[in-house]
Specification:
The complex is a heterotrimer of chains A (821), B (362) and C (217). Chain B is mainly β. Chain B has one domain: Beta Barrel (AttH-like fold). Chain B has two helices and 23 strands. In chain B, the strands form two sheets. In chain B, strands 1, 2, 3, 4, 5, 6, 7, 8, 9, 10, 11, 12 and 13 form a 13-stranded antiparallel β-sheet that branches. With 217 residues, chain C is of the alpha/beta class. The chains are: A alpha+beta (821), B mainly beta (362), C alpha/beta (217). The interface between A and B is large, with 36 and 38 residues.
Chain lengths: 821, 362, 217
C-alpha cells in the first residue's frame, strides 16, 4: 500500500510542476459534467412533474373507456362492467371556477383505482376513511393551495353554492387539479350517478366478455398509447435538451482527452524510470487509474455544483417553454434526487476513463527502455488520417441514409449525430489537405516551413479544432433555426391576430350586453364573433375554432395550402381549415374529409385548406362560426374580436374596461397579445440559445488548453528557428498567424455544416417534434457575427501561449539544445 | 418489512377481516387503524336467537362480517381439489347507513382453487351503495364483481340450499352447485361463539352438510368435480382480543358423516384459546370443552420468509379421536392484501376424512 | 552473484531474423566489477536488458543470487529489480518533477528499504549535499548521473548494471563519476557490470569481457 502511495506521489508530482495541465484536465471534466448534469437536472425536474400529473391523470397511462358522443355516462355502466368481470374504475372530471380561476376537478374511487393508473397512491392509507366518508377531502398540490390563497383544511365554494370537502395538501399531486372522492365530485358538479370515463386496469378476472355485449355501442375503448400523454408529447423537447447536454459533454471530453494524453506523453519518462526501478506494470496501471478516478470524482463534484447552478438559472425558461408549448406545468424550484448526483459522478468518471483509454493502452504496450522520446506522431499521422477519413465518409453516408429513409424523431437526431461526427472526423483530413496545398503553392523557406509545421501541429490541435467545428456548426444551425422561426412567427402572428381587440366575456349574458353596447358606438368597424369547442379524434382532444365570414380573415389568415374560393366554401358550412399539426398527424390533405362527432350528431367536413398553427400542442381546425354553433349549441358565445381603427383602440379598450369591469384576461388589444406571444416564444428558445453559448464557451476552452499544452512541446521545433536568426517576436507572430489560419479554415467549414444542421432541425427534427415545418431562411449577418466571435475566441486562446513565447528567456531556448529529453 | 407484516397481522387479528385495497398493502394497514375501537357498532351478546332467512343477509350495524365457503372436491380420475369463495364486509363508520357512494361499507372478495401442484387465488374490492357488491336476502344472492353465490329457486331457508357458486381469476374459474338436506348448524353456544375469556365473540352459524358438484377450469381447461362443501356465516364488531396474534381453524368432514369445527386462537404468551363444536350426522351440535382439544403441529413449511405449521395432530380423548392432518398442497398461501394460509387437508388415524385448514397471523 | 548460462536472443521482423546473442556465458562474483565491451550492435545493451528482466530471452538462464530471472512474471521481475538490482543509464532517467532528495530515495522507497544512514553516506560521497532541494533540470549532466548512481545504490542492490553511464559526460567528469561508482560498489560489496565502448574506462574495472558475434570472447 505504501508502495502504491509512493508511486502515486511520484506521478502526482508532475501536476505540481505543470499546474496548467492539471487545470486543463479539471476544467474539461468540470465543464463536461456541469453541462451534462445541468441538462439532466432540468429533464429530471420536468419528468418528475409529469409523474405528478400522470399520478392523477390515469387516463393517459391506462386504457380508458369513454362515451365518444357525450361528456358523461351513467354510473350503472361501471357496475355492469364490474359485474361482467371488467377491472374498471370510475372517474368524473370537469373544469370548475373558484374565485375566478379555473381548476380541474377530478372524482376518483380509491377502492377500485388500478394500481398502475396512479404513479403515487394518491390516497394514503390513513386518509382512506376520511377521504370517502363525509365530509371527505379535496386533495390539492401546494401550488393550487397558493393559487387559491387558502390554507390546508379550508372549504372553498364552487359558484357560491356548493361547498367542497376540506382541502388537504398532497405534494405529489399536479398543480391545478382538485381530487376528491367520486361521490363528493358528483355532488359538487351536480352530476349524480354520472361518470366521465372508466380506467381499465390490467388485472383481469379471467376472460372479459366483449365490451359490446355489456354496454352496447355506448362506450369506446381508448388505448393508453394515444398521443395525449404529456410525457410523450414533451419527449421531443427533452430529447433536444439531452442532445445538447451530450454534445457539451463530448466537447468537454475532448478537453479531458487532450489533457490526459499530454500528461501521459510527458510522464512517459517518469513511468519508464519507475518501471526500471521495480514498479510493476499492473501496479502502475492501477495507480494511474486511481489517480484519474480521484481527480474525476473531485472535478465531477464541482461540475455537479456547476450543473445545479446552470439548471437553476435555466429552469424558469424551461418551465415557461414547456407551459407555452405543451401546457405542462413545472414547479419553479429544483428538487434533485441522489440518483442525479450519483449518475453525474459516474458520467464524469467514466468519461475521464474513456478519454484516457488510448493512453492506457499505449502505456501497457510501452517497452521499458525505449528511448524516452514523445511518440513520433508524424510517422503514424498519414495512416491515421486515412483511417479517420474512411470513418468520416461512412458516417456521412450513414447520415445521408438517415435523411433519405428515416421517419422518426430518433432518426432525425441520429442524422444530426452522424452528420456532426462525420464532419468532425473529416476535419483533420480536410485541414491536412488544405495545408498541403498551401505548402505546394508557397514560395520562400519560412512560409514553406510554417505550412509544414502547421501540418505537424495538426494532430495535437485536431481534437480542439473538432470541438470548435461542432460548437460553431451547432451554433450556426440553431441560430438559423431560431431566426427562421422568429421571422416566420412574427409574420404568422400578424395574420393570426387579425382582430384589433379581443374580448372574452364571463357569461353569455355579459357577452350579449357587450355586443349591444358596442353596436351603439361609431368607432367600431366590425364585431367578429368567434367560438371554441373541443372534440375527441382518435382519443386525443382537438380544438375547433369558429371563424366569422369577414374580409379580415380572407386577407390575413396564414394559409399554407388552399382550394380555390376557400373562404366561400368555408362560409357554406360543411368545410374546414385544418392546422398543419393536425394535418400531419391524421395525414389529412386538402380535398379530403374529416368526420367528427358533435353533440348534434355526426358532422362530415370537407377539408378546404391547411394553415400554420405554430406552437399549439393540440390539433386544431377552423369552421364557420355559425355552422359551429349549429353543431355545438352548448359552446360558449363569449369570445369575439373587434376591428377598430388604430387611433381608437385605446379609447375603446378603456371604455370597455370601465363599463364591464373586464380584467386583462378578458380584454386585450392586439399589441398586448402579440407582445405576450413573442415573450413566450422567445423563452422557448432561450434555453437553446443559452446552451449554445455554453457549448461555444467550452469549445473555446478546449482550443485554449490544447494550445497551452502544445506550447511547451513545440519549443524544440521553434528553438532552431530562433537560433538561425528569427526574433522571438517574429516567431510569436508566425505562431499566431498559423493558429488563426487553421481556426479560420475550421470556422469557414463550420458555416456550410451549420446550414446543413439547420436544415436537419427545420425539415426533420422540428416536424417530428412539434408537427410544423418552417420555411428555411439564411441569415448572413448572423453567420458573420458568429465567425467573428469564433475568431476572437481563437485569438484569445492563441494569445496567451504566443505571448509566453514572445517573452521567453533566451536561456530557455538555449536549453533546448543542451537538454536531453 | 417485518414491521409491515406485524401491522398486517395485527390488523387481521385484532378484529378486522382483511381489507386491503388494490395492490397497496399500505391501504390494508390503514384499515388496521380503524380496528382499535368498536364504538358506535352493535355489540355481540349471548342469548340472541338467530333468525333465518333474515340472518343470511348483511348486518351493517356490526363492523365485520363474512360469507365463507370451502369445498373438498374430486374429479373422475380421483384427483383431489379444493375451492374457496369468500365475501368479506367491513364498515368504515358506524350506522346509520349512507346512500350511494357515501355508503360506508367496503367489500372484499377472495377466491381460490387448490390442487396438489398449484394454488391459484384472486382478490377484489368494492364499495357498498352502488351495486358493485352486496347481499340480498330474498331471493338469497351474495356478490362482488362477477363472483356470485345465489339461490337456485326454490331455495329452502332451513338448509340454505340449493345454491349456485361461481368465481373467476386470471388463471382459474369455477361454477359449483351446492345441495343440502340437513338444516343449518349453530356454532358455539347456540350461535354465540366465544373467542376469548374476556368476552370477545361473534355470531356464527354454518352449513357443513353441503354436497358440491360442478366444474373447475384451470387455465381454461374444464374439470368436472364432486365433493363436500362447508359454509360459515359469521359477524361481529370485535371478535378477537388485542393480545391474540392469529388463529388455526379446522373444518373436518369425517367419513362417518360427523362434522367437526375447531380452532385455536394464539396468544402472545402461549396460553392459547381453544374452542370447537362436534356436529353429529344427526345434525346435533355440541360445544367442545377447551380442555378436551389438543392440537399439535407436527411439520412446518417455509413460504417466503414465513414458517407455517402445515401438518397437525389433533386429539380429543373424550371422543376417542386421534388424527394426523396433511395438506393437499402445503403451499396454499393466499398472497392477498392480508395474506394467510387456506387449503384443503386430508386426515387419517382413529378417523379419516377431508377438511379445510385456515391459518392466519404467521 | 550473477551467472549467465548459454543465453541466446534473436530479433525477428517480417523481413528477416537477427541473432544477437548466441549462447552467452558470464559469471560475476560479489564485489567484482566487470566491463562489457563490444562494437555497436554487438548486443551489449540487449544482454544488459535480459539480465535486468526487461526483455525476454529465447534460451539460456540468468541467475541473480539464487533466482532465475527468465521465466518470472512481470510482477516478480519488478520485485527483483527493485530489491536486487540497481540500473544506471546513459540518459540519467531521473523523474523531472521530483527533487534530488526524492529521486535519490525513489527506488529505496519502492523497495521499502529506506536506510537514512546509508543514504546520508551516499549523499556525502556523491557530493550532493548542497543540491538536495533542486530539481534535475537545475543540475549539470555529471550531477544528474551522480543522483542516478545514488538512486541505484540506495537500495543496496546485489547487482549494479550500468549502460554507458558516462556516455553523455566529458572525459574528466566521466572518470570522476566512474571512480566514485567503483568506490561505492566496493563499499557496498555488490557485483557491478558496466557496458561501455571505451577501452580507457573498461580498463578501470577489475575485469573486461568482450562481446563479439553473439558470444563472450
Amino acid at each position: 500500500m505504501s508502495r502504491a502511495l509512493w508511486i502515486l506521489a511520484v506521478l502526482m508530482s508532475h501536476w505540481r510542476r505543470h499546474p496548467m495541465q492539471f487545470a486543463t484536465l479539471v476544467t474539461g471534466l468540470i465543464a463536461a459534467t456541469a453541462l451534462w448534469s445541468g441538462v439532466q437536472a432540468l429533464n429530471q425536474q420536468a419528468r418528475a412533474s409529469y409523474d405528478r400529473a400522470a399520478a392523477i391523470f390515469g387516463g393517459t397511462r391506462t386504457a380508458t373507456l369513454i362515451d365518444p358522443a357525450h361528456a358523461v355516462f351513467p354510473q350503472q355502466l361501471f357496475v355492469d362492467l364490474r359485474r361482467a368481470g371488467w377491472p374498471v374504475s370510475p372517474v368524473l372530471e370537469d373544469r370548475v371556477q373558484i374565485g375566478g380561476r379555473s381548476f380541474r376537478l377530478l372524482g376518483i374511487d380509491p377502492v377500485t383505482l388500478p394500481p398502475e393508473a396512479a404513479a403515487i397512491s394518491t390516497v394514503g392509507p390513513r386518509q382512506l376513511a376520511a377521504f370517502i366518508a363525509p365530509p371527505g377531502r379535496t386533495l390539492v398540490a401546494p401550488e393550487t393551495l397558493q393559487d387559491l390563497g387558502l390554507r390546508d383544511g379550508a372549504t372553498p365554494q364552487l359558484n357560491d353554492t356548493v361547498t367542497l370537502p376540506p382541502l388537504q395538501l398532497e405534494p405529489r399531486l399536479a398543480p391545478g387539479v382538485l381530487v376528491m372522492d367520486i361521490g363528493m365530485a358528483q355532488r359538487a358538479l351536480n352530476k349524480p350517478n354520472e361518470i366521465s370515463r372508466l380506467l381499465v386496469g390490467q388485472q383481469t378476472q379471467g376472460m372479459r366478455p366483449p365490451l359490446e355485449s355489456i354496454t352496447g355501442s355506448t362506450l369506446q375503448l381508448v388505448q393508453p398509447d394515444a398521443e395525449s400523454d404529456l410525457a410523450r408529447l414533451t419527449d421531443s423537447f427533452h430529447l433536444n435538451l439531452t442532445a445538447f447536454g451530450l454534445l457539451s459533454f463530448l466537447v468537454g471530453l475532448f478537453i479531458v482527452n487532450s489533457a490526459v494524453g499530454l500528461a501521459f506523453e510527458q510522464r512517459l519518462p517518469t513511468i519508464r524510470t519507475l518501471r526500471a526501478c521495480g514498479a510493476s506494470l499492473r501496479m502502475l496501471t492501477a495507480v494511474l487509474i486511481a489517480e484519474l478516478v480521484a481527480i474525476s470524482l473531485a472535478a465531477g463534484l464541482l461540475g455537479l455544483i456547476g450543473g445545479y447552478l446552470i439548471a437553476a438559472a435555466l429552469l424558469p425558461d424551461v418551465a415557461a417553454s414547456l407551459r407555452g408549448l405543451y401546457g405542462a406545468r413545472i414547479p419553479g424550484q429544483l428538487a434533485l434526487d441522489p440518483q442525479w448526483w450519483l449518475s453525474g459522478l459516474a458520467m464524469s468518471t467514466l468519461g475521464a476513463l474513456a478519454a484516457a483509454a488510448s493512453s492506457f493502452v499505449k502505456m501497457a504496450r510501452l517497452p521499458v527502455l525505449a528511448a524516452a522520446m514523445p511518440a513520433a506522431w508524424h510517422e503514424t499521422q498519414q495512416r491515421w488520417l486515412r483511417l479517420q477519413g474512411g470513418l468520416a465518409m461512412s458516417m456521412i453516408f450513414t447520415a445521408a441514409g438517415m435523411a433519405w429513409f428515416g421517419d422518426s424523431l430518433m432518426s432525425g437526431f441520429a442524422l444530426l449525430a452522424t452528420l456532426l461526427l462525420g464532419a468532425a472526423l473529416a476535419l483533420p483530413v480536410v485541414l491536412d489537405a488544405t495545408l498541403d496545398m498551401g505548402a505546394r503553392w508557397s514560395r520562400g523557406p519560412l512560409i514553406n516551413w510554417s505550412w509544414a509545421d502547421s501540418r505537424q501541429q495538426l494532430p495535437g490541435l485536431s481534437l480542439a479544432l473538432m470541438a470548435l467545428l461542432l460548437a460553431l456548426a451547432v451554433n450556426v444551425g440553431v441560430g438559423t433555426m431560431v431566426s427562421s422561426f422568429s421571422t416566420t412567427f412574427l409574420r404568422w402572428l400578424d395574420g393570426r391576430l387579425a382582430a384589433d381587440v379581443y374580448i372574452s366575456a364571463t357569461t353569455d349574458a355579459q357577452a350579449s350586453a357587450i355586443k349591444a353596447w358596442l353596436a351603439q358606438r361609431h368607432d367600431i368597424d366590425a364585431v367578429l364573433p368567434s367560438g371554441r369547442a373541443e372534440v375527441q379524434i382518435d382519443g386525443a382532444p382537438v380544438e375547433i375554432l369558429g371563424l366569422a365570414d369577414h374580409a379580415t380573415y380572407r386577407d390575413r389568415w396564414p394559409l399554407l395550402q388552399a382550394t380555390a374560393n376557400v373562404w366561400d366554401k368555408l362560409r357554406d358550412g360543411d368545410a374546414a381549415l385544418v392546422s398543419e399539426q393536425l394535418a400531419r398527424r391524421l395525414k389529412l390533405d386538402v380535398g379530403g374529409r374529416l368526420p367528427i362527432l358533435t353533440p348534434a350528431g355526426p358532422w362530415s367536413l370537407g377539408i378546404v385548406g391547411v394553415y400554420a398553427d405554430y406552437g399549439n400542442p393540440k390539433g386544431q381546425f377552423a369552421v364557420n362560426v355559425d355552422a359551429m354553433f349549429e353543431h355545438f349549441p352548448e359552446a360558449l358565445r363569449t369570445r369575439f374580436g373587434l376591428r377598430v381603427a388604430p387611433a381608437h383602440i385605446d379609447t375603446v379598450v378603456n371604455a370597455l374596461r370601465r363599463q364591464f369591469d373586464l380584467d386583462s384576461r378578458q380584454l386585450a388589444d392586439q399589441a398586448t397579445v402579440k407582445t405576450e406571444s413573442k415573450r413566450i416564444f422567445n423563452r422557448t428558445f432561450a434555453v437553446t440559445t443559452a446552451l449554445n453559448a455554453f457549448t461555444l464557451g467550452v469549445a473555446g476552452i478546449a482550443l485554449l488548453t490544447s494550445l497551452l499544452t502544445l506550447g511547451n512541446a513545440r519549443l524544440p521545433q521553434l528553438a532552431p528557428l530562433w537560433a538561425i536568426g528569427l526574433t522571438r517576436r517574429r516567431l510569436a507572430a508566425i505562431e499566431l498567424a498559423k493558429t488563426m489560419a487553421v481556426a479560420l479554415v475550421t470556422a469557414l467549414l463550420a458555416l456550410p455544416l451549420g446550414l446543413v444542421v439547420a436544415w436537419c432541425l427545420i425539415a426533420v427534427v422540428n416536424v417530428k417534434a412539434f408537427g410544423w415545418r418552417l420555411p428555411f431562411q439564411m441569415f448572413p449577418l448572423q453567420m458573420l457575427t458568429l465567425l467573428g466571435v469564433a475568431m476572437v475566441a481563437a485569438l484569445c486562446a492563441t494569445l496567451l501561449p504566443v505571448l509566453k513565447l514572445a517573452r521567453m528567456q533566451p536561456a530557455k531556448l538555449i536549453r533546448i539544445f543542451a537538454d536531453e529529453r | 418489512m417485518s414491521a409491515d407484516r406485524r401491522l398486517t397481522r395485527r390488523a387481521f387479528t385484532s378484529g378486522l377481516t382483511s381489507f386491503g385495497l388494490g395492490a397497496s398493502s399500505a391501504f390494508a394497514q390503514g384499515f388496521a387503524g380503524l380496528g382499535g375501537e368498536a364504538t358506535g357498532f352493535a355489540p355481540v351478546v349471548p342469548g340472541r336467537q338467530l333468525v333465518f332467512p333474515a340472518d343470511f343477509g348483511a348486518h351493517p350495524a356490526f363492523r365485520i362480517e363474512w360469507w365463507y365457503v370451502t369445498a373438498n372436491l374430486r374429479d373422475a380420475n380421483g384427483t383431489d381439489y379444493g375451492a374457496q369463495w369468500t365475501l368479506f364486509r367491513q364498515a368504515t363508520a358506524p350506522p346509520p347507513q349512507q346512500e350511494g357512494w357515501a355508503n360506508q361499507q367496503i367489500w372484499m372478495g377472495h377466491a381460490a382453487v387448490t390442487s396438489a401442484a398449484t394454488h391459484r387465488f384472486a382478490e377484489t374490492f368494492a364499495r357498498g351503495g352502488i351495486g358493485q357488491a352486496g347481499v340480498h336476502i330474498q331471493p338469497f344472492h351474495a356478490w362482488i364483481d362477477s363472483w356470485d353465490m345465489a339461490a337456485i329457486a326454490p331455495m329452502n331457508d332451513a338448509t340454505l340450499a340449493p345454491l349456485q357458486l361461481s368465481a373467476r381469476g386470471t388463471d382459474f374459474s369455477y361454477a359449483l352447485r351446492l345441495d343440502a338436506t340437513q338444516p343449518l348448524v349453530l356454532q358455539g353456544d347456540g350461535g354465540y361463539s366465544k373467542k376469548s375469556e374476556r368476552g370477545q365473540a361473534s355470531y356464527y352459524f354454518s352449513q357443513p352438510y353441503f354436497s358440491a358438484s360442478g366444474t373447475l377450469a384451470l387455465d381454461g381447461k374444464p374439470i368436472a368435480v364432486t365433493g363436500h362443501a362447508w359454509m360459515d356465516r359469521e359477524w361481529s364488531s370485535q371478535p378477537l382480543a388485542s393480545d391474540q396474534t392469529g388463529w388455526d381453524w379446522f373444518s373436518l368432514h369425517l367419513a362417518s358423516g360427523d362434522k367437526v369445527m375447531l380452532f385455536r386462537l394464539r396468544h402472545a404468551d402461549g396460553q392459547h384459546y381453544f374452542a370447537g363444536n362436534w356436529i353429529g350426522r344427526d345434525g346435533k351440535s355440541v360445544q367442545l370443552a377447551p380442555s378436551a382439544i389438543v392440537m399439535t403441529p407436527t411439520a412446518s413449511t417455509t413460504i417466503g420468509n414465513r414458517k407455517l405449521p402445515t401438518q397437525w395432530r389433533i386429539a380429543m380423548a373424550e371422543r376417542g379421536l386421534t388424527i394426523d392432518c396433511t395438506p393437499l398442497n402445503a403451499q396454499s398461501w393466499m398472497g392477498t392484501s392480508f395474506p394467510y394460509w387456506e387449503g384443503p387437508i386430508t386426515f387419517h388415524g382413529s378417523h379419516s376424512g377431508v377438511g379445510y385448514l385456515e391459518m392466519t397471523g404467521y | 552473484m550473477l551467472n549467465v548460462v548459454n543465453l541466446s536472443k534473436t530479433y525477428r521482423s517480417a523481413q528477416d531474423e537477427v541473432s544477437v546473442l548466441r549462447g552467452v556465458d558470464l559469471r560475476i562474483a560479489a564485489g567484482e566489477s566487470v566491463a562489457l565491451t563490444g562494437e555497436s550492435g554487438s548486443g551489449k545493451s540487449t544482454l544488459l536488458h535480459l539480465i535486468a528482466g526487461l526483455d525476454d530471452a529465447d534460451g539460456g538462464e540468468v541467475w541473480i543470487a539464487t533466482t532465475q530471472v527468465l521465466g518470472l512474471s512481470d510482477a516478480a521481475r519488478a520485485t527483483l529489480r527493485r530489491q536486487q538490482l540497481g540500473l544506471i543509464f546513459q540518459q540519467f532517467n531521473l523523474v523531472p518533477s521530483l527533487s534530488v532528495a526524492d529521486n535519490l530515495a525513489l527506488q529505496a522507497r519502492l523497495a521499502d528499504r529506506h536506510d537514512p544512514a546509508w543514504q546520508a553516506e551516499l549523499v556525502e560521497r556523491l557530493g550532493l549535499g548542497e543540491m538536495m532541494k533542486r530539481y534535475p533540470e537545475q543540475l549539470s549532466g555529471g550531477q544528474q548521473q551522480r543522483v542516478a548512481i545514488g538512486r541505484a545504490l540506495a537500495v543496496k542492490p546485489a547487482l549494479l548494471l550500468a549502460d554507458e553511464p558516462t556516455g553523455n559526460l566529458d572525459e574528466a567528469t566521466a572518470d570522476d563519476v566512474l571512480h566514485l561508482t567503483r568506490d561505492l560498489v566496493a563499499r557496498s560489496g555488490c557485483a557491478f557490470l558496466m557496458v561501455t565502448h571505451s577501452a580507457r574506462l573498461a580498463a578501470m574495472l577489475d575485469r573486461q569481457v568482450h562481446l563479439h558475434a553473439g558470444r563472450i570472447a
